[in-house]
Design brief:
The chain has a single domain, classed as Rossmann fold. It is about 30% helix and about 30% strand. It has 8 helices and 12 strands. Strand 2 and strand 3 form a beta hairpin. Helix 4 crosses helix 5. The longest helix is centred in the C-terminal third of the chain and has 16 residues. The protein is globular.
Length: about 260
């Protein structure tokens, strides 16, 4: 059985709890398994990296966790709420309230200013007045050190700045969970370092971050690393300040994982 649970999950609130979950794509009469019998949990305040080669299933898993797709079988609880069986509207409400997305391609709208891009999620959040959009955008842009770019357009920004705008957009609803899909994939090394430092700072400030990447150096920046291959977790690693990397098979006992 493939397991990727946090050994400390019984001591903190579990945000994500996935049990025996699988994903199968159907093409005509052909069925293509993408994810297979996954057990996986993330607790509040963790920074977890899911690492794997292209085609390993990591982006599919992130899309399902982010309620953009669904498992074919298995159980998925988000903040204690069972996800299978929810309507599309219930998915959207849960996603808008609790999940902040950071995409590889930024997904900024070119015809909108930075402030308008950042405040866009607020339009789908009940209880926030339109008059407050700009001030809320200014607050999160200050957090990513782009206070002077409120009225700029995406084309006027560097790639690294655009990704920081995307992070600000993900933060504006104060989500329970930040999902980052190859967040440095389209950036030069200097911009990538800035973005990774920002994610690390957000984690230090209490954010829960789940990132997928194919880059071992980026994965090493996370608190916990999971390795996905052919739709299954094949290894797990815990990263601490005094011990950079400790890898163990995911089917090892919890005692062995703690010893690591």
């Amino acid at each position: 059985m493939a397991e990727a649970h946090n050994p400390q999950s019984n001591q903190a609130e579990t945000l994500i709890d996935i049990r025996q979950a699988s994903k199968v794509f159907t093409q005509g009469k052909l069925q293509l398994p993408v994810l297979q019998a996954l057990d996986f949990s993330v607790t509040r305040g963790e920074f977890v990296a899911i690492e794997g080669r292209s085609g390993s299933g990591k982006s599919t898993l992130l899309s399902i966790i982010g309620l953009l797709d669904s498992f074919s079988a298995g159980e998925y609880l988000l903040l204690g709420q069972s996800v299978p069986g929810l309507s599309a509207y219930q998915h959207s409400v849960l996603r808008n309230r609790h999940i902040g997305w950071i995409f590889q391609n930024f997904n900024l709208i070119s015809s909108m200013t930075v402030a308008e891009n950042v405040s866009l999620p607020l339009r789908y959040l009940a209880g926030v007045k339109a008059a407050d959009y700009r001030s809320r955008a200014a607050q999160v842009l200050a957090h990513v050190e782009l206070s002077d770019k409120l009225d700029a357009y995406p084309e006027q920004l560097s790639g690294g700045q655009q990704q920081r705008v995307a992070i600000a957009r993900a933060l504006i609803t104060n989500p329970s969970l930040l999902l980052a899909d190859e967040p440095t994939g389209n950036l030069d090394s200097q911009s990538a370092e800035i973005v990774m430092n920002l994610l690390a700072k957000l984690h230090q400030d209490g954010a829960t971050v789940l990132m997928v990447t194919h880059d071992p150096q980026l994965a090493a920046r996370a608190q916990r690393r999971l390795y996905l291959a052919d739709g299954q977790f094949v290894a797990t690693a815990t990263v601490t300040a005094t011990q950079p990397t400790c890898v163990a098979p995911v089917n090892s006992s919890l005692a062995e994982q703690r010893a690591g």
